[in-house]
Amino acid sequence: MCYILKRDYKLVLYCKNLLRNGSNSMITKIWWKICRIGKGVDMKSRLLALLTIFFITSVFYGCSVGLALSGKKTPEMGEIKIGSSREEVEMHLGSPISSRTFDDQTRIDIYVYEIGTEPSGKRALGYAALDVVTIGLWELVGTPLEIMKRGKKFIKIKYDKNDNVVSLRTFDR
Question: Structurally, what CATH architecture does the domain formed by 67-171 represent?
Fold first, then answer.
């Protein structure tokens, strides 16, 4: 315990000296605020809180930037209409996740596509700037925000015997 108190005192003096000598480092100011929080709270608790915050932000650091840069372009659903060929549909949606052919040579395919995953360099740049300014704390908000924007949609398409779209219906699950 004496060692921790001695170390705490040295840390406080170190921060004071840095601030007095004109250091405007963001990290120095944060350390100074952490050293001064709650005069009744021991330094061990403060360091534990700081390490917890550091661990959480380091786990998520850069995830929102990566999520903003990755993903696929949302398919243009306006191009898929009654009368379109199966090849045209697969060009926009990819292969179906399920396909069923009936006795009368008609077919029902189910496709899945993602919405809200379009890559955006501007959004990623903004997230990166927020990461730097907040020393990674932005990731606690940015990563869940980026994940919540994403979603999957399903589309059920019925084809006639010539593989042309007869009907289509979108649904969430």
Answer: 2-Layer Sandwich (3.30)
